[in-house]
Amino acid sequence: MVQHRIATRAEWEAERIALLAKEKELTRRADALALERQALPWVRLEHDYVFDTEFGSRTLKDLFENRTQLIVYHFMLGDGWEAGCPSCSFWADNFDGIGMHLAARDVTFMAASIAPLEQILAFRARMEWSFPWISTAGTTFNLDFEVSGSTRHNYRQTTTPIGESPGVSAFALEDGVVYHTYSSFQRGLEVFNGAYHLLDIAPRGRDESGPDGKMDWVRHHDSYN
Fold first, then answer.
1. In this structure, is the dihedral angle defined by the CA atoms of residues 104, 47, 53 and 164, taken in order, positive or negative?
2. CA 31, CA 28: separation in Å to the nearest integer?
3. Which residues 6+ apart lie within 8 Å of 40 measured at CB?
4. Of the candidates 39, 91, 42, which has an alpha carbon nearest to the alpha carbon of residue 70?
């Protein structure tokens, strides 16, 4: 835990102003990095996956819903699991309500898991979420985007195939062709979790120093005491 000093208001303000300069520089660097991210080349997808959705079978192209951009969150929920991953659920608690704002910018958002659709919808109902969520069962989607079964993850080779892993992938649709434009994994996903950003300005920060790992405190939101 960070040890905190006690200061006068004037001393605090002087240090806060110095920190503000660093925060502004970080913001400028993040803006520049976003432009570099958007400038990455696109990769044409030759395979048109077919997924199970609550509205029937849909191809990857169908998922765009007449928009030109698609973001998919790879949610860890395997066949037969009693519940979705607690960490992914922590992230998913941030998803409801954003769809209409993304749609206004020509972006469709949804989650995807390898579990059967019935299992996905049952867990979504338990969590009282409403964001779109599809099943990738029977496809190579998770394997191809390195979130389960792959011997590569986060752009590195692994010694054994990975199990279920979280991630996010972005796609573009242009002239009837789907392109993969971006994927991110591991700590690259933290930008999608608003609660973490609020904790980062709380006096004790994330306070993730438990004996079983940094995120051992996280529960499904209906499991906190």
1. negative
2. 5
3. 181, 182
4. 42
pLDDT by residue, tens only, the chain of 225 residues: 567 899 999 999 999 999 999 999 999 999 999 999 999 999 999 988 999 999 999 999 999 999 999 999 999 999 999 999 999 999 999 999 999 999 999 999 999 999 999 999 999 999 999 999 999 999 999 999 999 999 999 999 999 999 999 999 999 999 999 999 999 999 999 999 999 999 999 998 888 876 566 888 999 999 998
Terminal-residue alpha carbon distance, the chain: 24
Q: Name the one residue in this structure whose structure tokens are 């930008």.
A: 191
Burial class from Cβ neighbours inside 10 Å (0-12, 13-18, 19+) for residue 94 reads middle
pTM: 0.94
